[in-house]
Design a protein that fits this description.
Structural class: alpha+beta
Organism: Alteromonas gracilis
Distance between the termini: 53 Å
Helix content: 55-70%
Largest sheet: 8 strands, antiparallel
Protein name: Peptidase
Keywords: Membrane, Transmembrane, Transmembrane helix
Shape: globular
Pfam families: PepSY_TM
Number of helices: 17
InterPro entries: PepSY-ass_TM (IPR005625)
Strand content: 5-15%
Number of domains: 3
Radius of gyration: 27 Å
Strand order of the largest sheet: 4-3-2-1-5-6-7-8
Length: 494
């Protein structure tokens, strides 16, 4: 491509990244952490009994106990099986959820407020869902734009593919790292951007497809993607969920049941559907349908449906990396860190080209590292107080900005220390609140990485602090005062 095209691509890449840097960073950071949203649900209540499987009798008993306790009207009933990615038995309706033990006895109400806030931050930026999703999806499209324009603007992709220069003030190394991460992980970043765009714009796409091909009938489009509810004789009575679940051992012995849904509870069209993870398939699940009496009706047809239907049903696992256990989740976490680093380094490169304006630079560091502190403080608040976690998170973010404006010493190393100390405080409070449960798998699988972050942030903060002192000393030594001797008319360099 000619120089003009590359320069235009670079301009578009730069200004899109700069103007949307804060929103892009928050979406990427929260998304990277939310890869482990199921692990965070376990982390929030680490003392709950966990199991590998459960009997149909225990499932039936747990739901009966739940319905006796909660008689409010609900259109759905749910059972989350321990064969899902959360090894716990959960029974719930549209309003409340309870854990149960392996015998089917109810334990306590499910409380995953922090996880919900974190996922809400990623999906909607904690805005009203209707237009928060559209904004985040638009940011997904911006990510795709940044990837494409970054590749176009790169002058020597093949030659510089493995270049990583060190030394100096670190600016050149940061530019090289930004370019390497942007190039190496470009396929992943495009997948994240495209799938993220799909989630928010699916409704708009649905309306366009309906208008063009189905005379405006949106239900007809939905039926092409989501298999319509079965047409049954009027149903009545208590749904036989235990009987339906027991049949999965013969209907799909190779599949892992994830959860069960009773649709249209108490209505004539009531039916049971069990979603099971299909091995070697990217789709979220295949649906097995039963009538109220627990008699098998048929499958929803997602596993062997048309390629378009399979693609759409794969978007969740494709976006969150939930398709090969912890291996794929950790891979997505690492690649997500790379995407987040791209947001940070891109903005810091721009700031360096502007000679690091003091206030703008400090504000950026307060957002980047202060957001980690805000998440840690929000998690602590969730354990100690009742209230809006969204208000806590954004309140801390606002406080960070106010402090940064007023205190000039809040530089990047200081914010690294603050973020590390905040996570350390979270770990201390978590241990005090949960006691022995702190040493369960549910806790350690997240607490150990948090401990590593505390150690890294302290080491990195000290490294940057030493570098700042060395640069300051070098700059000071290079400035030689010039004294003018008026009596002799000579200048003396000191």
């Amino acid at each position: 491509m000619n120089k003009v095209t590359k320069q235009n691509a670079l301009n578009a890449h730069t200004w899109a990244g700069v103007f949307l840097s804060v929103l892009l960073f928050l979406v990427c950071l929260s998304g990277t952490i939310a890869v482990f949203h199921l692990e965070f649900e376990r982390w929030e209540q680490p003392h709950i009994e966990e199991m590998e499987n459960v009997s149909p009798e225990a499932v039936e008993k747990a739901m009966d106990s739940f319905l006796a306790k909660h008689t409010e009207e609900s259109h759905h009933l749910f059972v989350v099986f321990p064969t899902s990615d959360i090894p716990r038995l959960v029974v719930e309706n549209d309003h409340v959820a309870y854990f149960a033990d392996g015998e089917g006895n109810l334990l306590e109400e499910e409380s995953v407020s922090f996880t919900q806030m974190l996922v809400d931050l990623h999906l909607y930026l904690n805005l009203p869902h209707s237009w928060g999703m559209i904004l985040v999806s638009a940011l997904g499209a911006i990510i795709c734009t940044l990837v494409i324009t970054g590749i176009i603007a790169h002058k020597r992709i093949a030659k510089d593919a493995f270049k990583l220069r060190r030394g100096g003030n670190g600016q050149q190394a940061q530019i090289d790292l930004h370019n390497r991460f942007g190039l190496w992980a470009a396929p992943f970043h495009l997948i994240i951007g495209i799938s993220g765009t799909y989630f928010g714009l699916a409704g708009i796409i649905l309306m366009l497809v309906a208008a063009v091909n189905y005379g405006g009938d949106r239900d007809a489009v939905v039926d092409q993607i989501f298999t319509p509810d079965p047409v049954l004789a009027p149903q009545s009575g208590k749904p036989a969920i235990g009987k339906a679940f027991d049949q999965m051992k013969t209907l799909a012995p190779e599949k892992s049941p994830i959860f069960l849904t009773v649709h249209e509870v108490g209505e004539p069209e009531q039916f049971i559907e069990i979603y099971a993870k299909a091995p070697n398939r990217m789709i979220y699940a295949e649906g097995y349908r039963f009538d109220t009496a627990g008699n098998f009706i048929g499958v929803a047809g997602y596993e062997h449906g048309e390629w378009g239907k399979q693609l759409l049903w794969s978007m969740y696992r494709l976006h969150f990396g939930d398709f090969a256990g912890m291996l794929s989740k950790w891979l997505y976490f690492i690649l997500g860190v790379m995407l987040t680093v791209l947001c940070v380094s891109g903005m810091e490169i721009w700031l360096s080209k502007k000679a690091h304006p003091p206030l703008a630079s400090r504000l950026w560091y307060s957002i980047v590292w202060g957001s980690v502190s805000a998440l840690a403080v929000t998690a602590v608040a969730d354990m100690l107080f009742a209230g809006s976690l969204i208000a806590v998170f954004w309140g801390v973010m606002l406080l960070n900005i106010v402090l940064t404006v007023g205190i000039k010493s809040l530089t990047k190393p200081v914010w690294l220390f603050v973020s590390g100390l905040s996570v350390l405080a979270l770990l201390v409070v978590y241990t005090a609140v949960h006691g022995n449960a702190t040493f369960t798998v549910s806790s350690l699988q997240l607490n150990l990485p948090m401990t590593i972050y505390v150690l890294w942030s302290m080491w990195r903060g000290l490294t940057l602090l030493k570098r700042e002192k060395m640069n300051h000393a070098e700059n000071k030594s290079e400035v030689k005062p010039n004294l003018y001797d008026a009596s002799h008319g000579e200048s003396v360099n000191l």
